[in-house]
Each structure stands twice: as structure tokens, then as C-alpha cells.
User: Fold this.
Amino acid sequence: MKRLFLLGGGGEIGSAIKEKFQSCGYEVISPRSRELDLSSLCAVEAYLGKFTGPVDALVYCAGYNNPAEMGRLSLQEIERTWHINTLSFAWIVSKLRPVFEQQKRGRILGISSLYGTISREGRAAYAMSKHAMNGLVQTMALELGPYGVLCNTLSPGFVLTKMTVKNNTPQTLAAFERKIPLGRLASTTDIAQVAYFLCSEQNTYLTGQDIVVDGGFMAGGFQHS
Assistant:
């Protein structure tokens, strides 16, 4: 049985990814926050000390986003965002790299964001962390390609989740829908389907890429009033 190591499996997108992989026969290892605090590299280190391979796919879906404008954004919030969104991911990949090198196969996927390419008011900490994730994964693709490991990011557009509703007013959500060519926010299933493809054996040559799943928003639909 193939194994998926999934971080952030308790969130709505993460839960959809978990269900998709399980339905396709994967064993899913997905520690909850009480088992693994991704805001602490010490906690990550301790958890990985007990972790054993193999790992067919690693999906990092953990995320933290508490919008605040520069000048009102505390250092503590910046650090928490960086640790959860980027640094713990980098440390996990670093620690599991020998496993991937030894087995000479595998898939690594970081769930990024449109804000890994563009940004928006109040998203400084989040955008910095996701830009960094994209750069990290591109480097991983270069370093791990010779071992047969494919590394990508998946950048969802606006997904209908509790976090999206929390961080945006109903008027803003309606404006997003008008600016998305497909006319709706993504479902978590839309994201999980693409995540599975990128980590499956069907993906044989796609690596070092940021796959945007946004219903056409970035193609220019966002310009419409």
C-alpha cells in the first residue's frame, strides 16, 4: 500500500485531500495539531525522530493566515505565519530527503496560494510565506529530480472554506465570484483532484511547477467589474 504523509489534514482542503488519497488506496499519515505543532521546529524535530519511511507522497497543506496591514502586523504574527506555512515544511523535507533519495521515487507537493505570485492588502506575512514556499519547491525539484522525486506547488484560487468566509465579507465573496470566469469559488474537491494527480504515478514529468487552480481568475477574469 502506498503511503501519504499529509500535514494540515484537519483543515477543509486537507480533509478533502485525505479522503481522495484514501479512496485511491493510500495509507494516510496525518498528525493533528495536538500531535504535531507546526509553529515549533522543536516539535517538528521530535515528531520526525519517531517517523519511519517509506513515503510515496508528502503533501504540505498546513496554513495560517491572519490578515493585518504593515504597521499593524506584529513580529509574533509574522513568525507564526512563517513557521507554519514555510519553515516547518522546509525542515520536514530536509529531514525526509534521505528517505526519498534512498527509495529513488516520490512526490512532494506544497499547497501554496495565489498570494505566492500576487498579493493583496493585509496579506504581507501570508504572501511572504507563500512566495518563499514556491521558491523552496522549485529548488527541491532541481535537487531531488536526479532521484526521481517530482516536486510542485498547487496554488488554489478562492476556495469556499470557513477561512475564506472568515477573512472576507459577503460582498467581497460575491465580487470574487463575478471576477472568476467560471462564476464560482472552488470546492475543496476541485483542489483535491489536482493534488492527487500531481502526487500520483499518472504524473511522470511535471516538476518544479506552480499549478494554479483558480477557475480562470489569474488569466484575466479578475479585471472584470
